[in-house]
Amino acid sequence: MKNTNRPLILVTNDDGHFAPGIRALVEVASELGDCLVVAPDSPQSGMGHAITIHNPLRLNKVNSFGDVEAYECNGTPVDCVKLAKHVILKDRNIDLCVSGINHGSNASINIIYSGTMSAAMEASLEGINSIGFSLLDYSFDADFEPCKPFVKRIMSHVLEKGLFKTNLLNVNIPVMEDGQQIKGMRVCRQAEARWVEDFMEAEDPRGQKYYWLTGKFVNEDEGRDTDVYALEQGYISIVPSGHDLTKHDAIASLTRLNQL
Amino acid sequence: MKNTNRPLILVTNDDGHFAPGIRALVEVASELGDCLVVAPDSPQSGMGHAITIHNPLRLNKVNSFGDVEAYECNGTPVDCVKLAKHVILKDRNIDLCVSGINHGSNASINIIYSGTMSAAMEASLEGINSIGFSLLDYSFDADFEPCKPFVKRIMSHVLEKGLFKTNLLNVNIPVMEDGQQIKGMRVCRQAEARWVEDFMEAEDPRGQKYYWLTGKFVNEDEGRDTDVYALEQGYISIVPSGHDLTKHDAIASLTRLNQL
After folding, report:
1. Distance from B164 to chain A by nearest Cα, in Å?
2. How many structural domains does chain A have?
3. Contacts of residue A239 in chain B, CB cutoff 8 Å?
4. Closest CA to A172 of A96, A218, A239, A223
5. A224 touches chain B (CB under 8 A)
C-alpha cells in the first residue's frame, strides 16, 4: 500500500472480485482515497457472518483493478476483512470500509443472511466506519451508473463528517423505471419483513431426492419509516446498524427465569 | 412424525448430529415432547446465518438417536431448520425449537458468528419459540450432565408459559470447577465484548503461504447485567434476542443525510 495523505479505504463484497458491483464501488472509492481490495475468489452470497475455522485461508494478488492493490481470498467476506486488517495492512488504520455494491437487496431481514453486510459489520467491530451498498437488481449486468453519484456522496460525507452512535450503515438503492430518477435518500429503520420459504424438490440422475431453496419476500410492516417503504417510494434507504441482538424490552418480563 | 398430544420439538445444532451436545439435548427434549432431529452431516461451527443458495440440499434419515426420527443434512444449520419446517413437517406447527448444546460459548458477540444461534434465530423468524444452548467447553468430550436439569427447566418453562416480547433465547452455561455447582440463572444482556484477531501464518508443501484464523476473546464491558459477567459468577446466562439490527438511537443524528 502507498503511504499518501489520502484516506485509506478497504473495499470488499460477497459476489467475488470479478463482479461488476465491486468494480463500480472501486471506481467511486478511488476518487476519494487510496483503495485496498480484498474480496472472495468465488460468489459468497447468503454466507451471513460465516468465518472459516476448519480450513487454511489463502490470499492471491490479482490485477483486476488496474493500479489498485487487490487480492482474492478463498474464504468468506468476513475472512476477507479480517485478513485485510491483520495480515495485509498489519493493523494499520483504515479510514473507511465499503462492501458491495451487492447485486440484490439487503434491506430488512436480508441483513442477517448477507455476506455484504457481514463484511461491513466485521469492519465495524474493528472500530472502522463501514458502509454496505446494495442495488435492488440481482442480474450480473445490473446498471450501477445511476447510483454512483449517491454512493460517492454518502462515502464522502462519512469520510468528512464521521458517524455518530453507529459506525455501520446498510444502504440499499432502488432500480428506477426508464425515465425515472432516484428521488433522494432516507435514513430509516429495518422493516419487519420476512421470507416465506419454499423448496424445489427434484431427483438427481441416480434417483436421489434433492431440494433447492426458493422463497418469496413478504413485508407485513406498514411503517412509513422503514427501508422497504423508502425503496418502494424511489428513495435510497440508509439504516444505521449495530451488532447487539439483545431484546432489551424483553429482559424485565423474563426475570422470573432467575428463580427457576 | 407421530401425531401425539405431546409438544413437537425440533432439535438441531451446528456441530453435526454425531456431537455429544445434541445427544444430551435430545435426551432432555424427549422427556418433554416428541422430537424431530435435523442436523448438519458435518461440523458447521462459525457458519453464522449462512444459507445454501448455489447447491442442492440433501436429507438422509439416520438412526443415531434410537426411536427419535432424525435426519442429517448437507447444508448449514439454517438450512436444517428450513428443511425441517417446510419439507419434513410440511409446515406443521412446531411448539419449540432447541439448538445445541453447542460445544463452546455463544455469549456476547459470538452470537453473530454462531451456527447454533442462527438455527434458533431462523426458527424464531418462522414464529417458533426457540432456544440456543451452549456450554463453555469446546472439547468433544465435554460433560453435559451438570447442565441437563437447567436445560430441562428452561425448556419446560417456555413450553408451559411461553415467551413475551421475544421468541428467542441465547442460553450459555458455565463450566464449574470440581466440587462447585452452577449457581442459578440470570436473564441479562449481550456483553459488548469482541475478538482480538490474529492469524497463524505458514507455508504448505509447495511453498505457498496460508493463514489460519486465531484470536482472543476480550470483554471490555464492565456492566454487571451482561451474559459474560453472569457466566464469570457461575450463573447460566439467558439473553432474550431478536433480529433487528437497527441502531434506533442513531437515526435522529443521521437525518442530515436525507438532505445530501
Report:
1. 7
2. 1
3. 245-246
4. A239
5. no
